[in-house]
Amino acid sequence: QVQLVESGGDLVQPGGSLRLSCAGSGDIFTMRDMAWYRQAPGKQRELVASIKTSGSANYADSVTGRFTISRENTKNTMWLQMDSLKPEDTAVYYCNAAVIQRDGTYNTYWGQGTQVTVSS
Fold first, then answer.
1. Which of 16, 31, 104, 120 has a C-alpha 20 to 30 A away from that of 9?
2. Tell me: the pLDDT tens digits for 94-117?
């Protein structure tokens, strides 16, 4: 079993910044591709940013230049630095990770989500 625990969501004003974190624990041998998703009320969940074990990252057009995804493989941890936040960024943000577990299995896990609200 693997758990992903997210933190860092908050209420911020437009133009502000937040740093989200996602910490993995449990039967982890190696964490492979990781990603941040978000879901706003009435909208489908969308991919915000993804990162491979090499550090290679991809971003949705809506956040390119404002958000930065990073990871530390030895700590099984991922972050999302969000700058120049806009009201349109308001959503529940979810951590996603593909994991090779110590028992030899491969599974994908989701975090519980953390609320980000950008408002004046």
1. 31
2. 999 999 999 999 999 999 999 999
pLDDT digits (tens, 9 = 90+) for 28-62: 999 999 999 999 999 999 999 999 999 999 999 99
Which regions of 11-66 does DSSP assign to beta strands (E)?
11-12, 18-26, 28-39, 46-51, 57-59
Residue from 7, 8, 25 nearest 17 by CA: 8
Q: Where are the beta strands (DSSP E) in the chain?
A: 2-7, 11-12, 18-26, 28-39, 46-51, 57-59, 67-72, 77-82, 91-101, 106-110, 114-118
Measured CA to CA, the distance from residue 116 to residue 22 in angstroms comes to 14
Considering only CA atoms, which of 92, 67, 93, 63 is closest in space to residue 81?
Answer: 67
